[in-house]
Amino acid sequence: MFKYIVKRILLSVIILLGVSLLVYSLVRLMPMNYVETKYASQIAQGTIKDEDIEHFLGLYGLDGNIFVGYFKWLGNMIKGDFGISFKYEKPVTQVISENMWISFAIAFVATILQFLIAIPLGISSATHQYSARDYTVTVFTMIGLSLPTYFFAAIVIKLFAVDLRWLPVGGIIDTGNSYDASFVGVFSKLGDVLYHMILPISVSVILSLGGLMRYTRTNTLEVLNADYIRTARAKGLSEKTVIYKHAFRNTLIPLATMLAGILPSLFGGMMITEEVFAIDGIGRMAYKALVEGDIPFVMGYNMFLAVLTVIGTLLSDIMYAVVDPRVKLVK
């Protein structure tokens, strides 16, 4: 196990270097850079000189070629310096650490609800194959997989926030309210936050259910056709015991592979959802930084996600070997 982990870590370093070079090259190859975006109006009006643009490009490190800029960034990154965000004018690590927790809270709650709803529905659909229940779950799955986030979120906002006015359009709290530091004030603020989170969490859960339900249904159908399930039924065990004691455990084994994608989704934010609902999480901030060509923040954010993905994949492999003793890790 130890040799396997060390080998994977060394391989991950190479992968991260490749990811960093690819992301940096793509950002530098964007049609406009941060300086041109920031001073777009002055450039259009001709009120800023070309030498001033060249001066700003030098200040932001955008005057050299891609490889020079990349290795300069890489050298600073190895020292633990991810640079200062062009847009937010703060250290990249500070911006990420300050704004990822609201994204984490939303994604964590949405993930828990997703598993609590999707797994039972997937199992129920598999145990009632070709029934009205199975077809209903299948249709719901296809809807969840097909609808784009921005489209479904716009419909939800139009219906529940604009027309019915049951829920707020977006944001985290009502800007018209002020809360003191007392217990009542903190409790009221928490209630306001939860009230604003109903729509974004609901959208995230509904659109995420489809894939997990289909995955659970497929795995359950495979397990139910296994020999040991037929043996358990032949012994006279109740259908409930067969499904939830024998089949359910083995159904969960492939779900361990989903751990690889959970970590980056928890801390990386939901970029489209946060943008639609005007939530200042790490996803929305990354979107704004990407649009304006904020290279330090984009690089720091993507490397943050890449490291989480590598860690998640490693944990997924280890968990797969733990839950299924038949799996052997290749050293």
Report on the architecture of this protein.
The chain has 331 residues and is mostly helical. The protein is 76% helix and 0% strand. It contains 15 helices and no strands. The chain has helices spanning 2-28, 34-38, 40-45, 50-59, 66-78, 92-127, 132-146, 149-163, 183-224, 227-234, 239-255, 259-268, 271-276, 282-292, 295-323. The mean pLDDT is 83.
SSE order and pairing:
Blueprint: H1 2-28, H2 34-38, H3 40-45, H4 50-59, H5 66-78, H6 92-127, H7 132-146, H8 149-163, H9 183-224, H10 227-234, H11 239-255, H12 259-268, H13 271-276, H14 282-292, H15 295-323
Helix pairs in contact: 1-5, 1-15, 6-7, 6-9, 6-12, 6-15, 7-9, 8-9, 9-11, 12-15
Give the biggest sheet.
none
Q: Overall mean pLDDT score?
A: 83
The unreliable regions are: none
For the termini, the CA-CA separation is 7 Å
Class by SSE composition: mainly alpha
> What is the general shape?
globular
Percentage of residues assigned to helices: over 70%
The ordered H/E elements are: HHHHHHHHHHHHHHH
Helix count from the secondary structure assignment: 15
- How much β-strand is present in the residues? under 5%
Provide the gyration radius in Å.
25 Å
Find the count of extended strands (DSSP E, 2+ residues): 0
